[in-house]
């Protein structure tokens, strides 16, 4: 006799998939394909991630009744599928009833929605803004799935202090299954492990953590789903940055449940992890927004070189066009380095000289500018001419312009509005210059899994070794107007990531006048950053949602 309460084995397929926000039909199709796969593998249950049917984060889309209706219809359709006796499904969806609007999960089995649970703890810090669009759910109880009492805390429910996991344990949950939409930042996998371990220790229950995959605007969801058993051992670990479904087997043992099989994948570290995040975020932005190809200005400098490498790795060389736009200050070295880089990457390389258009602008302005000194205006004209030409190529061929400014220069406003700031998306927006160097060196040695680019030195070593220069006037280098990048980056990390006081930064050995100047530049460049293209979030504090400073701001920290 097999009664449900005697169930001793549970096979859970964990689907770490890449949904698209707003593509309800596409996400439903992905859920169905995953369920078919799970059925083939003999799973009892398919676990999908937070708000899978809408894509995460759906932001203000959930304020549209038509969108919520479409999501609900998709959940009902998927529930109907489960009448076939195959795997049940846990899937995230946004829902509304007379009491409010919720970030919810549905449990589907035997042709029906057998339970719905709402997220209690709505994150409202950093990149998250969930209190804006969702109401707090009621404290959940476990769901009885084929005789097993499952606790389903949704993402922040396992991070926060509201006691959701404890409540689930006290009300009889036997396993905790947590659907997540957890974005990448450097070192996040370890942090998630610690968060989950804390809940495992507090509840005495095993916890399965399933995370979404893929880029959504500035965020990268890196997957890396895993579980800890109640004895605090890592039961399985899925890969990071890869869309995958894994079967895990759970056994009833000594009064509790133990996960005794599942994959054990390697988690990449440091440069590899950051590079792969840039790649995935860039690829998904371009593909999910329907661009067939991209174009970028390749200057012979390191920023555009690494952007070209990321673009080729993400899209393949035939979808990337590099354009060298030389002016009279462009050196022979730059011409050679840019050509070598494009050749190493195997992508199309055009040369469009800007002497004639810049001369045209200057001649049009000659009367207006009569009696004035030549300076930054004329320098910016070079950058703006390049920006205009790249946008023309974009319009003509439908290619998205890749923006190439790193976090160091975006911090201090070292970029020209409507010039090199033109473009749709920036793969290195959240990488300081020293990190750009580190990732470039790494990429010259390794090709990440799934990358479409070639092996070998794709960023010629001369580009890495030479002094960075914008070449907007003769013999110019970045260091003429900025401190050396190791110094600049340290000061910026203190100011931006750590919100340190200037006195504290000076105490680290920096020159006070330099620290004050960098702080000033950081504040006065806020207006530029507000007009800048989105780009991949890599740090805990990107210039997007994570750091929200006023543009009009007279505060300067003088101790
Ligand atoms: N608070 C504010 N709110 C709104 N608008 C404001 C503003 N402050 C200035 N502005 C406007 O912005 C204009 C100045 O901005 P913008 O025209 O961009 O020019 P600007 O910031 O003055 O100059 C661009 C800087 O970037 C450097 N650069 C350029 C290109 C490439 C690189 C590189 O190495 O990658 C470096 C260049 O050497 C220079 O230091 C002003 O003329 C004014 O109209
Ligand atoms: N001669 C050029 N040909 C093509 N694109 C250029 C050229 N000069 C600048 N650009 C574009 O403008 C961006 C800003 O470049 P700039 O040379 O001013 O300094 P940078 O920030 O050090 O970038 P890079 O390291 O790529 O040179 C470049 O990344 C590139 O996309
Ligand atoms: N979607 C969420 O609730 C995510 C919040 C959580 N702190 C995370 O970053 O993973």
TrEMBL record:
Gene3D superfamilies: Carbon-nitrogen hydrolase, HUPs. Pathway: Cofactor biosynthesis; NAD(+) biosynthesis; NAD(+) from deamido-NAD(+) (L-Gln route): step 1/1. One of its GO terms (molecular function) is NAD+ synthase (glutamine-hydrolyzing) activity. It comes from the Bacteria. ATP binds at residues 297-304, 404. Pfam families: CN_hydrolase, NAD_synthase. Belongs to the NAD synthetase family. In the C-terminal section; belongs to the NAD synthetase family. Catalyzes the ATP-dependent amidation of deamido-NAD to form NAD. Uses L-glutamine as a nitrogen source. This is Glutamine-dependent NAD(+) synthetase. The lineage of its organism: Bacteria, Pseudomonadati, Pseudomonadota, Alphaproteobacteria, Hyphomicrobiales.
